[in-house]
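Run folding on both entries below.
>entry_1
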Amino acid sequence: MNNKKLVLFYVLLLIGIPFIYAAYLYPSLPEIIPTHFNIKGEADGFGGKDSIYLGPIIMGLTSLFTYFLLTNIKKFDPKRSEQMEDGLYQKFGFFTVLFLSALSMVILYTTSHKDISIEKLLFPIMGLAFAALGIYMPKLKQNYFAGFKLPWTLENVDNWNATHKIAGKVWLYGGVIQFFAGLVFSSVASFVIFFIAMVVMVLVPTIYSYRMFKNGNKLS
C-alpha cells in the first residue's frame, strides 16, 4: 500500500469513527435530543434521536470534499506551480479531516452528556486547530483555495509570503488564547474572547497585506 492510499485509509477511518460512536450512543438516547446550542452552551434546538447521525454525515462529506480538493489542488488551481508541495497539502487535508472528526465527536458527546457544556470542549479544540493552522500558514504557496486569498496577495508572491508569515504568528498566538479562554472562562466570556481573537486574526494580516500593497509590495 503506497503512502497516498495509506493516508486515504486513515482519512476514511477518521470519518467513520463518529458514525461508530453515534451507533454506540443511539440505543441509550431519549426519543428527543438536542441538535443546536446557543452561545451559553444551552440547547435551543431539538430533534428525533435519528438526528444523531446528521452531524457525522455533514462533517464526513465536508471532510471528503476538503481532502480531495487539497490533495488535487495542482490539477485545477490557476496558480498551480511546481513549487507547490503535494505533501504539505496532503497534511493540510488530513489535519482538516482530523479536526472535523474531533468536532463531530464533541457534538455527539455533549448530546449524550447533558452535564457537559459544549463550549468547554468546542472552543479549546477550535483554538488548537487555529494554532496549528498558524504553523502551516507560512508554508502555503500562492493558490486560490487556502490562505489569505486577497487581490494583492494573489497578484504578488512577495505580498503573499509576507502576509502568511505574519498570519502564521497571529493565528498561532490567537489560537492559544482561544484554547485557554475556552478552558478558563464562562460560556459567554469565552465566546466573546474567541470572537474578538478571530476578528484580530483576520484583520491584522489583511491590513498588513494591504499596506504592503500600497507601499509597492515592499516590506516596510
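>entry_2
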Amino acid sequence: MIGIIDYGMGNLHSVLKAFEHVGADVEIVTDAAQIDAADKIVLPGVGAFQDAVRTLRKKGLADPIIESVRSGKWFLGICLGLQLLFDVSYEDGEHQGLGIIPGKVKRFDFSTHPNKDNLKIPHIGWNSLKMRNDCPLYREVADGSFVYFVHSYYVVPDDSSVIATTTEHGIEFVSSIWRDNLFATQFHPEKSQRVGLQMLADFTAI
C-alpha cells in the first residue's frame, strides 16, 4: 500500500486520483502508525515551508518520515514535499527542514538577470526536464519531456550526485532528486498528464 501523508498542506485529492488512475493501492495516512504500516510513502505539499515543517513536527510526523526513509522504504516527495527534505529554507527567514538531504532551499532572484522582465516568479506552467542520471523513475520518460511547475523556491543539494533532473528558468535549477530509495520532484507529476502518470506508475511498480 502507498500512503499519502495528510498534514493539512497537500494537494491530496489530485495526487490520490492520479495514483488510483495508474492502478495503485493507495490510502491517505495521518499518523505515525499508518506511515510505518505503508509499503511506500508520498509526501505532497503546497504552501509555506515554515508552516509545513512546523505542522509535521506538531503532528508527530517528522520523525516517522525520517525513519521511513532511513529504513529503506520507497519515498516520493512532491513540490513542497521535495523542499522539506533539505536542511534549511530561506523562505521568509531561515527555517530548519527535515535534514534528510544536505542542502538548502532558495528563492529565484532575477533582479540582475539580463532577461529579468520575461522571467516570472513564481515559475508557473510547463517546462522541460534535462536528465542527469539513470533515475529509475524516468526509465520510460524521454529527455526533454515537459512537466508542470508551480513554485518560487528551488533546492540546492550539497551533493550533486543526487540530482536526477534539471530545468531552465533563468538559471538551471534542480527539478528532481534521487538517492537510493528516495525520489522527490519540484514539479507536479499528478498534473503532468501522460508523462507524470508514467512516473507515478513506475513508482508504484518499483
